[in-house]
């Protein structure tokens, strides 16, 4: 069975899991019956407990689906605390359905898989030892990778039915009113976790900071919460910020960022009231810096900035260059703090951010997005999931979702060390080329041939050579040569869903 | 069939509507499967329309359930505009399920009933010509009266399944992000309407003020909205405020208010961190004034004030005498404006306010509430629904819900003109005596015998005579005599649900 991006899909697994092959990036107008949780009624007076083990005992049974959020990133203390009790409790055959998995969770997930505690996983991504473990066949059932918007969709459809959500928060009152903005371990927006709070049958908050009732603003509400577990520390504030908080000084990255800015500024979308998502990382910060200057120079203001938010973006808000920041997650302390003080920085849940199956998500209104790539191929298909060795080492994140923007720019170096980024065929298709418009490399840009308008607008920019994507691929190949083909077994270790829940690709077990 | 407050219930109607008789005010710990709406998927780009008729045609079919909110109160222009199109469109057999009905809607509802357009109604209340019409048998099927918390419960259970919600808002962007705080016709909290926005299959916003995208704060979200209808005016700002905005000068009302304050201050609940709900009307404002002084004198601050909010209550917030205002509706412009500027005034939906079937509502945490009564009987049962002539002229509002407070005070004059308020048996039981603690009249107070602790605390207050409720009833009867018994036919014109959805009483057709 092949799907519309020409990937062979394993018919047995597709049938077992009741999957459809990916067809199109168009979502259309289906009518969707949403699902709702079971609620165990209470007046809410006895929610505070200190014994995680007891809460696990009261809520969990073999075969259930459990969830966590990843807003603490590598500063997370919650996942390991809870999973320790679950493994030690001897629970079996659980489905792990977090918003994503970060490196600090890897050892515990592997232990839980080996113990038979976790037998199914759905996540935005995985990296490091866990990606390696799964790619080498460590988990019997294929991992289901879903974008943030698709996870929201899957929860709202009932494809993911969370029995118990364990959600760490930097503050909560005794009934469970909580937000991500105050306390020691602040991370700002609770965007991804809001889905779990709304849809899980049982919601367990963990916090090191029980505040007086009623706690406001209440991003998570007492009407959603069953238990409030007091713990010593929910997270390490120093490790919550993800990656770069300073502009890159790498000349290659600066060149790419400056070219990305040229593409944006010369596109038809750079006008008063435009909107953008830049993402995180040193290069993204550099793009934001260039964009800021261009907005000042051209007297242009943005209506909104979207997505994972960084301080340089909230600086634009505070400068008045951006009217609203629509915030599903904050990548650094500065962005998290700004959410607390600037009422134009609106917390949004993952559904509002990117669920394709609703009445309009923020990404549907997005003009410009800059996304990264591990690989991009001559059909503009993008891989952000598997490495050049075929091993899982990435995350879909909002990649497929934000690629619905009117101008989707992939920003990536032509080669990384001895490895080509622009390739004949990506190892794993995450985002279909159909939703990608421009590739920006340090050598120049390639424009998706279906975008004649952009060919025209961007065809003759000074200092921005335009290539076909095949030319860029050949240039990359000339520099680093042709890699030896990867070898995989027939066994499927992961399914990559497109944001509509169809299968865009699979990942096979790597052959050593 | 009799229920636990000794009311005869019509077995045929009870069976037809699948109702249980009222048993107890205890909600217990049932496990509830919630329901969820159908969502018609769209990117949200074509929501703005100007033709109400076309929207009605696109969304409505015979037999459906439609809803409205009553936050505009008698300044509402939305209900009549929409119902005009629905009646003229010839639709039949609709269920009207608004959060409540205000006087300005009465003529149109009667016309719709006569036309066969509306055949079923559920509401918090009705007054004036509509109450009269229904009490005289104008609607074939019994009206279902539900408290605000019970309406939330019924929506979350699927007892009320809203097909199309028509919601007026003072602002919205083109995708439907909206709040109640900005524009000409502001009313502050959208508390009741948030239930409709979340649970209706189709949500139609009507506004006279389309603002730039994205509109924040978004109490109603684009993910919930199907249409944004631009109209000339959604409401009359001068008629949105309900009733009194000034303290009463009526000596009887002042005496009652001052005694209410004495009861609160001498109760075990008046201590730092206590919480209260005072409601609206001149007497409630007077209570708030007395309470303010008592709080200052005793160095006591409240953790929260709840409910329908008035400016004197938000003044307490701004003075620092109250930490949080939990706001399901605002009764005047001052309170609505304060919500915009004071982040400690938190908008809450009707479920969070008072739904008994969740994981804790605000009313479950309430220490003190002051409620009104049309009648209260010697079992402390309260009627806020039917007049002394047996005609429907009231609303449950949050009466049953807030009566779950630790100290529930009914504040009412002993007699009104030639009519006794304290009676042997109320015409219609809305709130069972079991949840009422103290009656305060201008002559003195009566304490529910089951509250020995309050008998002790309040038994010897200077200037606060304590009577049994029977003594107060006899005193009232002495003043105004025994009224002629009301005469009703056998026909049931309304069912009064308790907040758990059981039947606490019915209203019969009045015999002329």
TrEMBL record, chains A, B:
Chief location category: cytoplasm
Name used for this protein in its record: Citrate lyase alpha chain
Cellular localisation: Cytoplasm
Swiss-Prot/TrEMBL GO biological process terms: acetyl-CoA metabolic process
Sorted UniProt keywords: Cytoplasm, Lyase, Transferase
Record-listed E.C. numbers: 2.8.3.10, 4.1.3.6
Top-level division of the source organism's lineage: Bacteria
Keyword set includes Transport: no
InterPro entries, per database record: Citrate_lyase_asu (IPR006472), NagB/RpiA_transferase-like (IPR037171)
Signal sequence, start to end: none
Gene Ontology cellular component annotations, sorted alphabetically: ATP-independent citrate lyase complex; cytoplasm
A single MF term (Gene Ontology): citrate CoA-transferase activity
SUPFAM superfamilies found in the cross-reference section: NagB/RpiA/CoA transferase-like
Pfam families found in the cross-reference section: CitF
PANTHER family in the cross-refs: CITRATE LYASE ALPHA CHAIN
Catalytic activity: citrate + acetyl-CoA = (3S)-citryl-CoA + acetate; citrate = oxaloacetate + acetate
